[in-house]
Design brief:
Elements lengths: L7 H52 L17 E5 L4 E4 L3 E5 L18 H7 L11 E3 L4 E9 L2 E14 L6 E9 L1 H53 L14 H50 L6 H25 L7 E4 H10 L8 E4 L4 E4 L1 H18 L4 E8 L2 E8 L25 H4 L4 H11 L3 E6 L5 E8 L2 H4 L1
Parallel strand pairs: 9-11
Antiparallel strand pairs: 1-2, 1-7, 3-5, 4-6, 5-6, 6-7, 8-10, 11-12, 12-14, 13-14
Helix pairs in contact: 1-3, 4-5, 5-9, 7-9
Length: about 475
Amino acid sequence: MRRLFGSVRARATLGAALVVALALVAAGAAVLLSLGDNLTGQADARANSAAREVASQLVSGRSYADLDLPDSEDSPVQVVDEDGRLVAVGEDLERISGTGVDAVKPGPATGQPSGDDDREEKGEEDSGSDSGAGEISDDTEYSEGSATVDGESADYRFAAVEVSTEDGSKGDLTVYAGGSLSDEQSAVSTALTSMLVGFPLLLAVVAGTTWLVTRRALRPVAAITEEMSAITASEDLARRVPEPDTHDEIARLARTTNETLTALQTSVERQRRFVADASHELRSPIASLRTQLEVGAAHPELLDVDGAVEDTVRLQELAADLLLLARLDAGEKPGGARVDLAALVREELSQRTRDRVDVRMDLKSLEVTGSRGQLARVLGNLLNNAQRHARSRVAVTTRTDGAWAVLEVADDGSGVPEGERERIFERFVRLDDARSRDDGGAGLGLAIARDVAVRHGGTLVVREAPSGGALFELRLPIPQSSAE
């Protein structure tokens, strides 16, 4: 059971069925209540009409015995005087409840002749001595009850109408008349039966439709899952999941998955290439150093100490570059120290005693936020690159450009071809392949510089310098407090 409802299709089907069931129950209850209220109102109207018809006869002076009462099966009637005594009742009424007067046989009423003989003795007409004066109350009170007529019991709505006679022959009277609830009960029962039969069928249709529609909608997800499992098993990142020809969330999921696979494949290939290039770059200084040490061990007088030191330094720098790249790839944060770019340039240049050409400075004090060590590495790598390619001079400039602090390193060398200006920032890329590795480095300096710039929220680009060489422009955001 838990496994069944662990699927999206089962949960969607159950959810749809529950929502429809709640809606059907609410709608059915509303329909039954509305139907019952409507039919009850009709029963009230019938009862009120019957009561007022009898009341009209009373105020017209008609005697109790001559009242034209409706059939008790349609509308059982009681006429009660102000003392609560039953003075007139419909025919065949055997039992009644809900009117407050349970009597079904009238007793003698005060102020009313008891029969035709008395009227004849007095020489009066059937209508009595009343002139028809009287008043019927505008208010009607309703109650529910039951009545048994000719052996058949049924439920009724009773209307109570008060009648006043001015001559006092009858006094104040109350007419009770009933309106049958059989139509309401029959209609409500029929509607309820229809709902009890129809609602489960409708729920079954909704659940089945939802199950089929969800199955069809999730079919691409099953294909994506199957392909992802195959990719995981084969470790073949060149494969891609099928993309449905739709514009829904599943199609976007498939496209996003393929984009993730592409990025992952690129990252893995880049990592493999990085490992291969690093191994290749490390092999050269290690082999040279080993050769020199082996020669020195066999012939001490031939040991090239300076060359061994240079190979060791190169190996150390390459290892440091690889370690920094690994930290950057791992997402190392740059930190939040305040760094003055002008002071950083002066400090870096004061430690460089073996530069091939002089460096000119045009510095403006600018503070940025980040890692002093990483920014010093960027500056050092840019200066190394400029020294390697400059003919006679290198220039370092700091300035502001809106919300950016700009550091520029320019040389008067041959520059960088426009088509290669992005490629030089890739790892282990060197455009001057003809020169020796000892002169050209490993091709990691500019890649490190751009990675550091990006992680500091800035950019590093190259364009042509005014002197015709290369101009590397480092842009870093100025802290808000400094900008103000």
